Hints:
Helix content: 40-55%
Radius of gyration: 18 Å
Strand order of the largest sheet: 8-7-2-1-9-10
Keywords: Acyltransferase, Transferase
Number of helices: 12
Enzyme class: transferase
Structural class: alpha/beta
Protein name: Malonyl CoA-acyl carrier protein transacylase
Oligomer: single chain
CATH class of the largest domain: Alpha Beta
Number of strands: 10
Order of helices and strands: EHHEHHEHEEHEHEEHHEHEHH
Family: Belongs to the fabD family.
Domain Malonyl-CoA:ACP transacylase (MAT): 7-306
Amino acid sequence: MRVAYQFPGQGSQYPGMLRHLPDHPAVARTLVEAGEVLEENVRELDRAERLSSTTVTQVCLLIAGVATARVLMEEGAIPDAVAGHSVGAFGAAVTAGVLDFRDALQMVRLRGCLMEEAYPRGYGMGVVTGMGEQRLLSLVESVQSPDDPVYPANFNACDQIVIAGSITGLEQVFAAAFREGARQAHLLDVSVPSHCPLLKGVSKRLAAALDDITVREPRMPFAGNRRGRLLRRAEVVKEDLALGVSHPVRWFDATSLLVEVGVRLYVEMPPGSVLTRLATNAFPEVRSLAVDDSGVRSAAILTKRIQKEA
Length: 310
């Protein structure tokens, strides 16, 4: 196992992200397909005012990731494994052959709508950098209350953890974290409290919807969010997609495991390079690149070169 494709989650979006995709027939086909499912002009979705919607943002992330992965694979750059952060897991599942792209679009749109409906205001997510897991979890526990719930959400790196909950609760944790020596603590561009028990109801409804679609056995290992393990069965991937929204993302565990089993190149699908920076910092022995930075041609060439070295 040499190459893993990474699919980013919410927070990586930027206006124009779909218009910056490679000029390639696979991208054009993906945009047409998405437009047929969503029944609108998807080229208008990545405008700044539209990206203020969680639902639109998540749909755009899926489209961008799948379109770029299709380009790379049509150029002969086939990954050995896939990993998707949060909603990026749906793009990873499509690339692994578990979900049909059309079904994934429906599921991601439903996921975003349910999340927005559950907590329309006063909630969100924030990141704390420069504190270990146990220290931060103690601070979260000390702040936690029925009126201002706050929970750990994404374990991105040894010293970078995302928390979710009420804005008031998040700000209390930030203040305590700075007093304890945290380097950074701030809100993210996410308006819902993802990956915590507040979204158990969303997981339940998403699981029911996923039960109504066809899933296929993955063509390659899929790095799960909930337990940070490699998943090789369709039903287990489906469960991870449903439960992931209400459980913390064990991103550091998943990417560490991929390195342990031989991954030597991480290629991040658009938009952005958040996951590339995480991988570069955590695994200096592994090459990491973002297609948004390097271009799709360079990513394809390097992917095939690394795999030939196996």
